[in-house]
Amino acid sequence: MTQQTKQHAANIITLSRILMVFVVVVLFHMGFWERVTAVILTILVIYLDSLDGLVARKLGVASEFGALFDITGDRIVEHVYWIYYSSVGIVSVWVPIIFISRSFIVDTLRSVAYAKEGKTPFGEKTMMKSPITRFLTASPVSRTIYAVGKVIAFVLLGIILTLQEGYERVSHWLSPRMFGDLILITEIIVWIVVVMNLLRGIPVIIDGRYYLFEREYPKELKDN
User: Structural domains in the chain?
Assistant: First the structure.
């Protein structure tokens, strides 16, 4: 396997999960069993999020583009889920608003850091300066907790959407009160994930404040 083929393998995984999330949305618009399939695919989509980076490291082809493409995949996947769940009324509209706004700000800072100084979001040339920022955004503990939180939230929301379509199939063991409790627990988890998203984004903004108030870059950008 050539070096280029190895690099393509990791990027194909990222691209696959991007495409898969749109398949999930289509399935959620269909019947009960299609929605069950969508929930299962949701778990796979999130699993592929960790697999692409693992493959790149195992094959020794981790790259700056691969890292940035992985982040792009993350953004598309989570935004599609939040927007869709909000559009069908099981998530507050403020959830996608918060996620999208945070993503634009953080990713703009990361793009400027990369364009001006070759700084990357993670790794040896990371733009992150403070230990707290590196812990919240790049440490295995923080990333794992956040990823697990998103998996639980997306899956539970998918289950709620599935049960809304075919509640009569499970009504013999899931009472209306239990279903209501499931909705409440899911809502709490969703807002916990929202808070984690902000906690992982605010330190990046603080560390990247130099780029927000730097006067040269806007002028250079305008001249280009």
Answer: 3-223 (1.20.120)
